[in-house]
Specification:
By secondary structure, this protein is α/β, with parallel strands linked by helices. It is built from 12 helices and 8 strands. It folds into 2 domains: 73 residues, SRP54, nucleotide-binding domain (Four Helix Bundle (Hemerythrin (Met), subunit A), Up-down Bundle); 204 residues, P-loop containing nucleotide triphosphate hydrolases (Rossmann fold, 3-Layer(aba) Sandwich), CATH 3.40.50. It binds guanosine-5'-triphosphate (GTP) and magnesium ion. Magnesium ion (MG) binds next to helix 6.
């Protein structure tokens, strides 16, 4: 458990009265927890109104109310189906994100996660840095998962093309593709992804409509707080992402960012990562998550 979750538990865990000061402090705590100022204020205003209406008098009594409000927020972006593979089609998972957020590690963690019941294939579509493909290949070797890679500066869409061929001919599923971590300008990102889209469409057509379920996951570093929100907004506006992998939720991360992600952009968090090991990835469960700081 990290410090912020301790703080909010302590703050809501007593029978102190619901004064103006209480609501102000709660607002500050939510902002500190990365809810973003707008959502923190809205939450506290709604909570205050509900407490008045239902004649709630003490801090600890607000917990259940806050719990259901936060659950409602997350239901704006339901996460469960996206975490599971569709068994009858080839699942293609593209991992996007800015520099250093944990894309490559998350690709490897997903391969490790799905490896139990499936036969994943990794694709090194980060062709920007020389070491990027090697980093993914090393993970692949450790996990016993095949990695498709080209040379540095190769076309990312060509890597995806070859990986699709390999997936179909070798019976691999899912195909998990790592991408380059540049802070994409909007147009560069759209260009790269529309090329990948074309490759996927072409491949589907060529294989008699061989179906592909294509998901774009955005990796966000939980320690970057509300800056992660800005990244989500930029990527979502550019290419419409299907879900978030929230990384580095260990250590100092507060993680309230999942709420504005759901409320403002309807983007669900699908996975949470809390360490560098392969097993440190978890399917996001809204209720369990809220319990980490409200129960
Ligand atoms: N503590 C912790 N560290 C993580 C987690 N995920 C990734 N890391 C670390 O973060 C660093 C960057 O991870 P990468 O997977 O290389 O990030 P990337 O987004 O692929 O980086 P670029 O390819 O350079 O853009 C590495 O040292 C990882 O071990 C996590 O959930 N928790
Ligand atoms: Mg990488």
């Amino acid at each position: 458990m990290n410090k912020w979750t301790d703080k909010i538990k302590l703050f809501l865990g007593n029978t102190s009265e619901l004064t103006e000061d209480f609501f102000e402090q709660l607002c500050d705590l939510l902002i500190e927890g990365d809810f973003g100022a707008a959502l923190a204020m809205k939450t506290v205003e709604d909570l205050e109104a509900r407490c008045k209406k239902e004649k709630i008098k003490t801090a600890v009594q607000t917990k259940d109310m806050l719990f259901s409000m936060l659950k409602e927020y997350l239901s704006a972006a339901s996460a469960i189906p996206a975490a599971e593979l569709e068994g009858t089609v080839l699942n293609v998972i593209l991992i996007l994100g800015v520099n250093g957020v944990g894309k490559t590690t998350s690709a490897a963690k997903l391969a490790a996660l799905y490896k139990d019941k499936n036969k994943p294939l990794l694709a090194a579509a980060d062709t920007f840095r020389a070491a990027a493909a090697d980093q993914l290949k090393i993970h692949g070797e450790r996990l016993g998962v095949r990695t498709v890679a080209h040379k540095q500066n190769a076309d990312a869409a060509a890597v995806i093309h070859d990986a699709l061929e390999a997936a179909y001919s070798g019976g691999y599923n899912p195909l998990i593709a790592d991408t380059a971590g540049r802070m994409h300008t909007k147009s560069a990102l759209i260009e790269e992804l529309s090329k990948i889209n074309r490759v996927i469409e072409h491949f589907t057509a060529k294989n008699n409509g061989g179906k592909i379920l294509y998901k774009k996951f955005l990796a966000l570093d939980a320690t970057t707080g509300t800056n992660a929100l800005f990244q989500a907004e930029t990527f979502n506006n550019a290419v419409s992402i299907d879900g978030v992998i929230l990384t580095k939720f260990d250590s100092s991360a507060r993680g309230g960012v999942v709420f504005p992600l759901a409320v403002n952009f309807h983007v669900p968090v699908i996975f949470i990562c809390d360490g560098e090991k392969y097993e440190d990835i978890h399917r996001f469960n809204a209720e369990e998550y809220i319990k980490t700081f409200l129960k």
